[in-house]
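From the shared-data thread, chain only:
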Amino acid sequence: MIKEIRITTLEELLPLLTEQDFRKDLNRNRSSYLYRGMPDASFKMATSLSRNCKHLQKELEPAILENFAKYAVIGEPTIASSVWRQMILGQHYGLPTRLLDWTHSALVGLHFAMTETNLEKMDDHDCMVWRIDMQEMYSLLPDNYRAVVNKNQSTIFSVDMLGEITTSLSQYDDDMKDQAMIIIEPPSINQRIVNQYSFFSLVPMEMTDIEDFLAKRTNNTVKYVIDKKLRWRVRDMLDQLNMSERIVYPGLDGLSQWISRHYYVH
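Structure, as tokens:
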């Protein structure tokens, strides 16, 4: 089930920003939610591999990863031994992959929902933030996958943990079909991944409609649709909270994007 919540005021954003359950075992408040911000509420959730390669993604994916690894190994020798490392590093640098970006931070999710390449379109359409539950994703996994996670006292995978089960894309697809997908925490290969509080979902090939999977197989998925009239107001609030391009893209490129938007006249 996907619950859709429409947000038209700043006050209605508060539940999104404060979603934490109290855990008696820790005596602390903790969240198991991940967020994905998208600048247009009409956008379909899809991987960059499916958008780029369409019906040939299964056939082309091995060649994409092999060629990326062949040239990238000079700068990152560790990717030669792991298709999962190839995929994660490639995703980071814009390679078409089956990974979907998520963040553990609702503020980072909101940032990406409020970001437009063309700022003139900020008022043209509503945006959205998706929320999924890591615990729920874990509960859908096959037994052998959950066993590895349990052994490591976690609910999400690292690259090494996934490698304990399979190093094969086809095996992963056979195991998951269209019934489940793992959540993986990428290695901190640079500051950008750390600042974005990044996670990925590893989408199996048979899952041709991710939103349909979430609607049929989950109960805690939420789609927050944020009214277009609120976007500049939320954008300004995020800047004051120090959530901007210069934080999510550390370096001069992010700084330049932030300055450009800061002085944009609309």
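The first helix runs from residue 14 to 17.
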